[in-house]
Structure formats: C-alpha cells, structure tokens
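Long-time lurker. I teach an intro course on protein structure, and each term I like to show students one example going from raw sequence to a predicted 3D structure in token notation. This year I'd like something fresh instead of my usual example. Would anyone be willing to generate the tokens for the chain below so I can use it in lecture? Attribution to the forum is fine with me.
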Amino acid sequence: MMCRLAAESALPEARRVSVEGNLARVRQKIADSLANAGRTDSVKIVAVTKTVDVPVIEEVVGAGNAAIGENVVQEAARKKGLLKEKVEWHMVGHLQSNKAKRAAEIFDWVQSVDSVKIARKLNDACGELGKIMNVLIQVNVSGEETKFGIAAEEAECLVNEIKDMNNLNLKGLMVVAPYFEDPGLARPIFREARELKEKLSLEMLSAGMTNDFEVAIEEGANIVRIGTAIFGPRDA
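-- Reply from a regular --
Happy to contribute to a lecture. Here you go:
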C-alpha cells in the first residue's frame, strides 16, 4: 500500500515537469524562430486548453504562461469557474452570434471575429458590462470552404466597422492555415496574412499552431496558439 501511494503521489509532479519542459521547448523554438527572422520583438503564447483539465491548466499558468485559449464558450465558462489563478482568456474558436453575450462575460480577447454581426453583438454586450474587449479579425486567407473567417478582400470593411465601436479594441488579425505535413507549405499563407495586417495598419497577427508556429513566426506572427506541443496529444 505504501509503495502504491508513493507512486500515485509522484504522478502530479511528473506531469508538472512534463508541462513545464514542453513549455520551455516551445519558448526555445520561438526564440530560435525570432532569431532566424532577425526579429527582436516578442511572441505571446496562448496555451490552447481544449479537453485539458483544470489542474493541468494550473500547471501551465504556474510555469509562467497566463494566456489561455478555449474553443467553446461553455467549456471556458466551466473552467473559469474552477480555476483559482487569474489568467487572460482568449476565445480562439468560431463564435456563434447567440453566444456573443456570454463570451463577453468570460473572455478578455476574442480572436475569431469574422462578421459585422458578431462584432456588434460583442460591442453591445461589452457596453452593458462596462468593459473594453481586445479582438482580432479572423481572415480566411487560404480560401478553404471548411475554414471560418472573412475573405481577405472584405477585411478592410470590417476593420472600419469595428474601429467605430466604442467597446472593442481591434488589435489585429487571426489566421488558421491548412494542415500540411511540411509546415513550410503554409509560409505563403502566413506571409499574405502579415502583409494584410501591415496594409491595414494593425498591430497583432495570431498565426501558427503546434505544427507550423515556427514558420508563422518567421513570417511575422506575434501570437501563437499552442496546444499539443505543451499538453501532448489529445483524444478530441
């Protein structure tokens, strides 16, 4: 019994070391990618916690990464109610208009604004709450029918609409590239997104996930959304 209890008590520590080690490796890869690109600025890591339990989220926050990304409003609400640490909550999944009010209550950032309708609903909800929310416009640069996001040629119109909204702070763009076995194939998509960001005089580009974040950084991303590389493979 003593041996079994000792083994069980060691498991959380082993997991914590794993999460910390994974996060350290991600940070090193980011530093290497910045150096490769000749950049001297920084990159924000949003740890995407889809299917990740609260104790593990607490570990990554304890390791110094307090930006947490969730794909589903209800799941974020549940975890926020349980998480003791103060974190910066990012909505990184598609946001339905009927969830905009709840999202305004939960999140500090919404990275997936892709229509005037969503923007207006968020703006109205934030006005009721007396808060200013940071938002990114999700742009479908690749033109994939399976991807959410506004078409690149329509982004400027949405930028102008959001800039007139008092309760939204437009920070930049978000893009999701197709999955490629060779991450280098996503490079033109990230480059086009960065060029669009610059054309629109925006600050932030959220681009790159576990498979391709190094290429995204080399092409100008300053926010990356990392799940698997920090928490390991997940079932869903």
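Some talking points for your students: Residues 2-36 form the longest helix (35 residues). The chain has nine helices and nine strands.
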